[in-house]
TrEMBL record, chain A:
PANTHER family: D,D-DIPEPTIDE TRANSPORT ATP-BINDING PROTEIN DDPF-RELATED, TRANSPORT ATP-BINDING PROTEIN. GO terms for biological process: peptide transport; transmembrane transport. Pfam families: ABC_tran, oligo_HPY. Belongs to the ABC transporter superfamily. Keywords: ATP-binding, Nucleotide-binding, Transport. Coiled coil: none annotated. This is Oligopeptide transport system ATP-binding protein. GO terms for molecular function: ATP binding; ATP hydrolysis activity. Residues 1-22 are annotated as: Disordered.
UniProtKB/TrEMBL annotation, chain B:
This is Oligopeptide transport system ATP-binding protein. It comes from Actinacidiphila guanduensis. GO terms for molecular function: ATP binding; ATP hydrolysis activity. InterPro entries: AAA+_ATPase (IPR003593), ABC_Ni/Peptide_Import (IPR050388), ABC_transporter-like_ATP-bd (IPR003439), ABC_transporter-like_CS (IPR017871), Oligopep_ABC_C (IPR013563), P-loop_NTPase (IPR027417). Belongs to the ABC transporter superfamily. It is a peripheral membrane protein. Keywords: ATP-binding, Cell membrane, Membrane, Nucleotide-binding, Transport.
Length: 361, 356
């Protein structure tokens, strides 16, 4: 494969570069606007939902990048863009140095083999009229080079075994399985083509608490076994913390803070991250008396009409005039530059300062 | 136990017996059984639930889907779909009277006025073709016979009380014009409208984002304090429970398997299921290790395993667990656990074993 870095690669958004490895995916200034139109006969665009607006990050082989954020922040759109299910308005997604956003036909198919997705809802993401064997084997229909026809049944049974399901269930239908088992089927389908990257969009949020842990364990085991890179999208901060090596926090179409998991959870410098962490209910009644809670006022603004400057300023307790005028870039804030501490990570805030909201255990 | 004597004694809403309200629980659910008669067979959704709530107290009912936590609440509210749901046994004593023996008309007077419910999904619980003001005002028009105009004024007042900004303008708007958090506030306002003594909140914040969830829980707690209401909070989120509850009832397969004041249960659970739930929460100091996972799946309510319903998934299961249904053992004054080996579970402070 061609791993030559493109000469024109824009300067990397500052961030931990673990061991100087080559990233497998590089996302650069990704933008996706969905047009809002009016009229039936003479459609005219009256605006745009700025679902994703300038997102950049790297994904390294074998690591897990967690993306957290509230509903409507654009995290699922990022996932769909990575999968090439949507065409970005602008920006690039480099897979091993090659921009995949404009690919089509055979070239796209080849790339897609290496980037697979696990969906949130195990009830609607499996076709109820197909057997489990057909569902998991379908990727082989599309990429026959991976498994010759006679070999497929065996491969599917192997996959069932890998995800902890009885290989004899190959002829059953999705409705015969529980939610957790269905999510395992979804994971088996994602694994079928031996991809390098798996984009998991809220893979456990539809499951019961006792089953969530089973699926998270399975995903971690598979990552070690197959050297997968995960992009793990979730709104549950404690699960992301458990599984992710690095975490990006999204708000209204932007990444506002990005760093190693300990840096984000223990040394957050962006006010939104701090508010988000402080709002998470802690399963420890002792903590409720002496825990600082930051309760944000209001709701997330509409992505069709985001605030000027910093997008978080309408709910931020630190907001000043500068925040309305100047959009803070996602870089290491000047105050922390060169400190080599855990606070030296990109944070898109003019007034970034460290604030521990989760008491270290 | 016969309650008929108490039932006949008071017909009108009593004028607060001095001091008596302290001891008598506001709501006392006793040995409640609910089953669903379906084509596939009888699903035993609730199998002998006991719990009580006092005024000003928050009881959290914790359980996974299918544990019977919502069905119990529906039976208490009297909104169980029947058929297929049938209450086969038990008592629901509210302010000293058994609701299950009341006629429909009488219950209707209690429902909404004396006890109210907040549902999980505000968008589908509100009527999309009526404005929010009309729906809030309906409470006053039906229960108190106010005119349309008076009801609207009351609706605005309510919306202000749950801190919906620009209430005067928004009262004319429809549910889809509100955000998720605001809709849940409308639901709370509706439940609060007639200042009930008891509120049952069924996963009130599950559909909301964390930052909005914190706002809504705060509001609910504040209103509860203000009006000294009893609150039953139904949830699956151990974090939310720890934040607001006074006591917890953990449900599994239609039974309460453990009940306890909130502090004790997190410190030392007395049932292996509770312990499994607590152990499966990701913890910072165990990062990189495998999460503890309760093996297997919750039981099918059509075929609840004999003995203890949790026995196929329990790390502690012995022969007796497969044959004898454990009674709700009294652990101490305030705690109970339905496990034959509650003593061992309570004393066990080993780290979660990774036998997933």
């Amino acid at each position: 494969m061609t791993t030559a870095p493109r000469p024109a690669t824009p300067e990397r958004p500052a961030g931990p570069d673990p061991d100087g490895r080559e990233p497998i995916l590089q996302v650069r200034n990704l933008v996706k606007h969905f047009p809002l139109t009016q009229g039936i006969l003479f459609r005219k665009q009256v605006g745009a939902v700025q679902a994703v607006d300038g997102v950049s990050f790297d994904l390294y082989p074998g690591e897990t990048l967690g993306i957290v954020g509230e509903s409507g922040c654009g995290k699922s759109t990022v996932a769909r863009l990575l999968m090439n299910l949507e065409t970005p308005t602008s920006g690039e997604i480099l897979y091993k140095g090659e921009d995949i956003t404009r690919l089509s036909g055979r070239a796209l198919k080849a790339v897609r083999r290496n980037i697979q997705m696990v969906f949130q809802d195990p009830y609607t993401s499996l076709n109820p009229r197909m057997t489990v064997g057909d569902i998991i084997g379908e990727p082989f229909e599309i990429h026959p080079e991976v498994a010759p026809k006679g070999d497929r049944r065996r491969r599917v049974q192997e996959l069932l075994d890998v995800v902890g399901l009885n290989p004899e269930y190959i002829n059953r239908y999705p409705h015969q399985f529980s939610g957790g088992q269905r999510q395992r089927i979804g994971i088996a389908r994602g694994l079928a083509l031996r991809p390098e990257v798996i984009v998991a969009d809220e893979p456990v949020s539809a499951l019961d608490v006792s089953v969530q842990a089973q699926v998270v364990n399975l995903m971690e085991r598979l990552q070690d076994e197959f050297g997968l890179a995960y992009m793990f999208i979730a709104h549950d901060l404690s699960i992301v913390r458990h599984i992710a090596d690095r975490v990006g926090v999204m708000y209204l179409g932007r990444i506002v803070e990005l760093g190693a998991d300990a840096a984000i959870y223990e040394h957050p410098t962006h006010p939104y991250t701090q508010a988000l962490l402080s709002a998470v209910p802690v399963p420890n009644p002792e903590a409720r008396e002496h825990r600082e809670r930051i309760i944000l006022a209001g709701d997330v603004p509409s992505p069709a009409d985001p605030p000027s400057g910093c997008r978080f300023r309408t709910r931020c307790w630190k907001a000043q005039e500068l925040c309305a005028e100047k959009d803070p870039p996602l870089t290491v804030p000047p105050v922390f530059r060169g400190t080599a501490g855990p606070t030296e990570h990109p944070s898109a805030c003019h007034f970034a300062e460290e604030k521990q909201v989760v008491p270290p255990e | 136990m016969s309650t008929s004597g108490a039932t006949d004694a008071v017909m009108a809403p009593e004028p607060e017996p001095p001091g008596g309200g302290e001891e008598r629980p506001l709501l006392d659910v006793r040995n409640l059984h609910v089953e669903f008669r379906t084509r596939e067979g009888i699903a035993k959704a609730v199998n002998g639930v006991n719990y009580s709530v006092h005024a000003g107290e928050t009881l959290a009912v914790l359980g996974e889907s299918g544990s019977g936590k919502s069905v119990t609440a529906q039976a208490v509210m009297g909104i169980l779909d029947s058929p297929p749901g049938f209450i086969t046994q038990g008592e629901v004593v509210f302010q000293g009277r058994d609701l299950l023996r009341m006629g429909g008309e009488e219950r209707r007077k209690i429902r909404g006025a004396r006890m109210a419910m907040i549902f999980q999904d505000a968008l589908s619980s509100l009527n999309p073709v009526l404005s929010v003001g009309e729906q809030l005002g309906e409470m006053f028009r039906v229960h108190q016979g106010l005119s349309r105009k008076e009801a609207r004024a009351k609706a605005i007042e309510l919306m202000e009380r749950v801190r919906i900004p620009a209430a005067r303008e928004r009262v004319k708007q429809y549910p889809h014009q509100f955000s998720g958090g605001m809709r849940q506030r409308v639901m709370i306002a509706m439940a609060m409208a007639l200042e009930p003594e008891l509120i049952i909140a069924d996963e009130p914040t599950t559909a909301l984002d964390v930052t909005v969830q914190a706002q809504v829980m705060d509001l609910l707690a504040e209103l509860q304090r203000e009006y000294n209401m009893g609150l039953i909070l139904i949830t699956h989120d151990l974090g939310v429970v720890a934040d607001v509850a006074d006591k917890i009832a953990v449900m599994y397969a239609g039974r309460i398997v453990e009940s306890s004041p909130v502090h004790d249960i997190y410190r030392a659970p007395a049932h292996p299921y509770t312990r499994g739930l607590l152990d499966s929460i990701p913890r910072v100091d165990l990062k990189g290790q495998e999460l503890y996972a309760i093996k297997g799946l919750p039981p099918n309510l059509l075929h609840i395993p004999p003995g203890c319903a949790f026995n196929p998934r329990c790390p502690r299961a012995q022969e007796v667990c497969r044959t004898d249904v454990p009674p709700l053992y009294r652990v101490n004054q305030e705690r109970a656990s339905a496990c034959h080996f509650w003593k061992e579970t309570l004393d066990d402070d080993s780290a979660p074993s990774g036998d997933a």
